Amino acid sequence: MLDVEWINDHAQDFDVFHLHFGFDAVAPAELQRIADALHANGKPLVYTVHDLRNPHQTDPSIHDAALDVLIPSADQLITLTRGAAEEIERRWGREATVIPHPHVVPLDKLNRPRVEHDTVTVGMHLKSMRTNMNPLPVLRTLLDEIRERDMNLLVDVHTDVVTPGMTHHNPEVAALLDSVRDRDDVQVHVHDFYTDDELWEYIAGLDLSVLAYRFGTHSGWLEACHDLGTRVLAPSVGFYHQQHPGVLSFDWDDHGQPVEGQIAEALDQLENMGPWRATREERIEQRRRIANAHAEIYRTALAGRPS
């Protein structure tokens, strides 16, 4: 659909064009032609600004150039947190409606009891070492800190990170994981991508999920953790901490290391914190509010765009 010809051929089939993701490989000039084609056909563009910094791109200027087209061109803007809306206002002079991220885990799984376990389990999933990941400094800190506490550390990583010759192979990560396999308080799981059900089971088995992102804006992973009752420790970049109250925090120093003592403090806090979980009823009600908010935005966009 991100194609001028498709828009011209199918303009009679839709009322509003709502963009979320999928434009990473589209040049800014082509994005402008797409926005112009929508407007030439009398079709409003609604854009949900999930990312103010693309987590897959090292150079922020690439995403910035796309935002410099999409945000001024959109008839209506949505974002997920107040902090992101304020940055949009500051950088582009545009007002974005704040609509929180909905549930990620299916509703029928939200009220299931969590599996009881005796030892606090901290999890860190390296996935396939996405561009914004900086796991080694955090992982080394966690390995030191859990020695001092009655905790277990579960480290997951995709097969491609530890397999020589694969796209995301990282010898430093592979060597560190090999060096801790004999520790009784550490488990290393190497696997391919989880299915959705496997992912929900994995998250629900943790007491704390640690996000080691160097940069970013919002997190769907964090939302899944909140759905399943797993606390989150996230860096102070982006607006993760505005998604839900109670997200634990650490800062990066100027050398790309966690500020000394902050992860230890978060682990100490964890043992005294109460439940942190969305209920099925809360997420259903939130979903209704989200749907109503979108309907109002679509009506406003249509009213402001001549047919």
Structure at a glance:
By secondary structure, this protein is α/β, with parallel strands linked by helices. The protein is built from eleven helices and ten strands.
Structural description of this entry:
- Helix 2 packs parallel to helix 3.
- The mean pLDDT is 96.
- The protein folds into two domains: 4-101 and 287-303, Glycogen Phosphorylase B (Rossmann fold), CATH 3.40.50; 107-277, Glycogen Phosphorylase B (Rossmann fold, 3-Layer(aba) Sandwich), CATH 3.40.50.
- It is α/β, with parallel strands linked by helices and 307 residues long.
- The chain has a six-stranded parallel β-sheet, with helices on both faces. It has a four-stranded parallel β-sheet with strand order 1-2-3-4, sandwiched between helices.
- It is built from eleven helices and ten strands.
- It has helices at 4-10, 28-40, 60-73, 82-92, 135-147, 159-162, 171-179, 196-204, 220-228, 262-270, 280-303; strands at 17-19, 45-49, 76-79, 97-98, 120-125, 151-158, 186-191, 208-210, 231-235, 248-250.
Radius of gyration: 21 Å
CATH first level of the largest domain: which class?
Alpha Beta
Secondary-structure element series: HEHEHEHEEHEHHEHEHEEHH
Which structural category do the helix and sheet elements fall into? alpha/beta
Named at the architecture level, the CATH assignment of the largest domain is: 3-Layer(aba) Sandwich
Please outline the major beta sheet: 6 strands, parallel
Terminal-residue CA separation = 20 Å
- For this structure, what is the CATH homologous superfamily of the largest domain? Glycogen Phosphorylase B
Number of helices: 11
Number of domain units = 2
**The CATH topology of the largest domain is what?**
Rossmann fold
| Number of β-strand runs | 10
Helical content, roughly? 25-40%
The low-confidence parts are: none
- What percent of residues are in strands? 5-15%
**Any idea what the shape is?**
globular
Mean pLDDT, to the nearest integer, reads 96
Order of the strands making up the biggest sheet: 7-6-5-8-9-10
